[in-house]
Task: structure prediction
Amino acid sequence: MLRGIKIKKISVIGLGYIGLPTALLLAKNNKVQGYDISKEKVDLLNKGKIPFEEPGLKELFEEVKDNFSASTKLQEADVYLIAVPTPLSEEKYSDISYVIKALEEVKEKLKKGDLVIVESTIPPSSSRKIFIPLLEKSGLKVNKDFYFSHCPERAIPGNTLKEMVHNSRIIGGSSKEGAILTKELYLGFVEGQIYTTNLDTAEMIKLMENTYRDVNIALANEFAKIFHSLDTNASVWEAIKLANLHPRVNIHRPGPGVGGHCIPIDPWFLSDTKYDSTLIQQIRHINDGMANFIITQIRDYFKGHLFGKEIALLGAAYKGNVDDTRETPTNRFVKLLTKNNSIVKIHDPHVKEYSYSYLLTTLEDALDSEAIIIVTDHKEYETLDFSNIRRKPKIIFDARNIVKEIKGTNGDTLYVTFGEERYI
Ligand code: SAJ
Result:
C-alpha cells in the first residue's frame, strides 16, 4: 500500500472557469503549474492577466503569483488535477475525450506515489471502467502505486471562489486511503465539510445535483406556461414566492431556458445508461423549448409573422452578472428569430466575445427595436430608460421578471412576463 504522498508539485490541467480558480486556491499552500492547450490563455496569464471575469480572482492571482506558473506543456508533478470540459455530442452523448487526452499525457509522466484527481463532470462509472485502466497501462497499479480520486466541482460561476472555499465537497476515492489523502489536499483551502465516498457514488452525486435543478426549473417553466394560458390575475412570480414559504417546497424560477456548461448537459449523462429515463429527456425538452414558447407569444402579438421585424435580445450571458455564454439560451432565440427572418440585435454589458458577436450592439441601439426580449437577468436591466429613444418598442417580454422600472414610454408598449401583462 501507498503510505502517503509527499506533495511537492501540483499540475492543474485545464485553466478554465473551474481549473484556474482551483489552481490559484491550491497555490496558497503549494507550487502549482497550470497547463492549458490554449496558447492565448497561457500567454495572458504569464503577462499577469486573467482571461475571464470572476469576483476576487484577480486579487487572488496577485496574492499567489509566485507559486503559480502557466504553460502549454504538462509538467511532471506529484498531483495531477484535471478540470477540462466534458461537452455533449450532437447525439446527446457525453464526450469525455478531453479527459482521456489529459489522462494519456498524465500516464506518460505518472510515477510511484502520485495522486490523480478528476474534477470534470463525468458519466457514471467512467473512473473505474475507463480512466483507471487507462492509467494502469503505464505499468503502475492503482492503490498500490498511485491513487485516483473524483472530486466533482460544485461552485457556481459568479460566486466561484466563495463557493470553492465554503461549499461542502464530495471526494470519491479509488480507496479509503486515497480519499483521505485527497481530502488533506483540499483541506488546504476548503472551509466547508469534506465527505469521502467511493468513485461510483461521487460521480452520481454530481449528476443528481444538476438534474435536480434542471427538473425544478422545468417545473417552474411548466407553471409559467400554465399561468400564461389562464385568463386570470394570478401572478406566477408571486405564487412561487408564496408557495416557497412552505417548509418543504422550493420551486425554482421560470425563465428563457437553461444555460451554462452544466445543467443543460449533465442530465443527459444520466440518460446515457442502460435505464432510459423519459423524465430526464422530457425536462431537457421543456427547458430547451422556452425560447420557442416566448417567440411564439411575440409572433402572435405581431399577428403571425416576424418577417423583417427588428427584435432585440437583452443579454447574451447564460445568467445574470457574468460574462459566460456557454450554452446560453440566447443562442436558441437567435436561431429561431433568424429562421423567422427577423432582424436580430443583441446587447450585453458583460460579454465581449460570443459566437454571435456580430449581432452585439449598444443598449441604446437595442432599445430602438420593435420588440425586446429580456433573456439574461443582468442587474443593468432592472431599469430601462426609453426617454432618448425615438421609436418605442411595441412589446417587451421580460423572461426573467427582472425589470423594476421602465422610463420614457408612451403607454403603448405591452410589457409581458409569463401571464402578467400591462401597457406602460
Ligand atoms: N436558472 C433558471 N431558474 C432558476 C435557476 C437557474 O432559469 O431558478 C437558469 C440560469 O439562468 C442558468 C441556468 O439555469 O441559465 C443554470 O444556472 P445556475 O445558476 O442554476 O447553475 P450553473 O450552471 O451556473 O451552476 C450549476 C450549479 N449547480 C447547482 O446549483 C446544483 C453549480 O453548483 C455547479 O457547480 C455547476 O452547475 C456545475 O459546474 O455543475
Q: What stands out?
A: The mean pLDDT is 95. The longest helix spans residues 199-229.
